[in-house]
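Sharing a chain and its predicted structure for anyone who wants a worked example. Both blocks are below, sequence first, tokens second.
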Amino acid sequence: NKRMLKWKIGDTTITQLLEMSDDTGGVPVLPDATPEKLDEISWLKPNFVSASGNLILNIQMLIIETPTRKMVVDTCIGNDKNLNMEGWANLQSPFLDNLKAMGHDPDSIDTVICTHLHVDHVGWNTRKVNGKWVPTFPKARYVMVGKEYEFWRDLEEDPFGDVFGESVAPIFDAGLADLVEPNFVVGDGVSFESTPGHTPGHVSVHIDSKDEKAIISGDMMHHPCQIARPEWVTPFDADNGAAMATRKAFLERYADQPVLILGTHFANPVAGHIVRDGDTYRFDV
């Protein structure tokens, strides 16, 4: 269990809890990101691209501690899930034990934020107890965008498996879900920024404390290479064109600003600043 990264934003602390880190040799997350094309972006190695030229991605939850509240953003894949994905199905990871070892009992979390409802962002919403899916964070409100919920509720079939049934529906059954607008203010300096495209109700999460600012991206970007190449898209987007437009507007908005960007899937060191670089951008860590 390697040391989890931590960031201070004013009076607020953000802490990483890693579920897994992988070079994505087998998964075409960004088909345009070939080793040859990645070689042209010199700053990606060694943190974000492996020696063999594959993208490195983390699956991680981010814990936000403000002076009065404790929130988590995106709950990874989860254990015991019946998924159509080798390496993700029926995980038995020490994720929850690691959370407790960091001093965070699941009962101490007051808010679970879902940037969107993909398989690897909602898994620890629930855990299996005596064969039944129960909320992992029983004292929390689980906050998600209404339009996002409706999209997944009405989807004929999720290629990854019954993600909705295992990881989302039980939260509603337990009465712990709040459906909100994409500009929702969570409170204590935490708020949503609408970043649709990857999914219809996708949001990024703003943290604002004592004139310091950070944003947790969600899957508006999967990898820092998309900072240099915002036109590179993933087959996992609901709408590639909208995702690309959102990404370009985001980069334009936050380039050369004192705003720390934390990539939900970015490999360590996870966080950095968007800086103009010729006619595109780079990630300054």
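Comments welcome. The first helix runs from residue 35 to 39.
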